[in-house]
Design brief:
Layout (H helix, E strand, L loop, with lengths): L4 H26 L6 H4 L3 E3 H8 L3 H10 L4 E4 L2 E5 H14 L6 H10 L11
Antiparallel strand pairs: 1-3, 2-3
């Protein structure tokens, strides 16, 4: 049984590729998973990633940017948020909650008043 030169080259290449793929798989299994590149390399995250961090929807993050509470940075058509700015905003928002009106308590107060009594707006 004779093997042509073309078949011998193909078999040799196939064997080398198989060995290299096995070695690559072993290296990939041993390495820890890489963190998302946006969160580590440049300190910027997408609005979706920022929403996950803040436990809100991406539309809420875009609203914060539009209202000026959070600064958005454009990368082409993508909007990114600096991770340190997001953390600072979340810390401020948590501290500011002391001044937030409890709507349930306010509704109970309004409903407990006799009808026809004027309501004063709180500042």
């Amino acid at each position: 049984m004779t093997v042509s030169l073309d078949e011998a080259i193909r078999a040799a290449v196939r064997e080398v590729v198989r060995e290299e793929l096995l070695a690559l798989r072993a290296v990939q299994r041993a390495a820890p998973p890489a963190p998302p590149p946006s969160a580590t390399t440049d300190g910027y995250v997408s609005t979706a990633e920022a929403a996950q961090i803040a436990d809100v929807r991406p539309a809420t993050v875009r609203t914060w940017i539009r209202q000026g509470h959070l600064r958005g940075h454009r990368a082409g058509r993508l909007v990114r948020v600096r991770l340190d700015e997001l953390r600072a905003y979340l810390a401020r928002a948590t501290n500011d909650r002391e001044g937030v009106i409890d709507l349930d308590a306010r509704a109970r107060d309004i409903l407990a008043r006799p009808r026809g009594q004027a309501t004063r707006r709180r500042k």
